[in-house]
Write a structure and sequence with these properties.
Layout lengths: L2 H27 L5 H30 L5 H26 L7
Helix pairs in contact: 1-2, 1-3, 2-3
Length: 102
Amino acid sequence: MSTRRDQYVELLKARLDLWNAEIDRVEERTKGLQAEARAELERQASELRRHRDEAIERVRQIQQAQEGAWEDLKGGAERAFAAVGDAFEHARARFRDEPPRR
């Protein structure tokens, strides 16, 4: 892979690592919650994982693309990562108000 592509992939992977840690924190928060609140947080975590998995697929596509084609895939990757970022921001806004504990 080219140096530029390697750097770009590393940047995307770093963002994925942050999101994985955030998903872990969300899942940790579900412990000890009432059933309704736990179900909502688990639904949000599932949605975050789905968006994250889409972003992972974009990284794979970039890594596997031929040298001249990977930059054509950047736009799709940027859109996928923006969607993940938006989903995380939405989830953070919902999690700011701590659900009631048991």
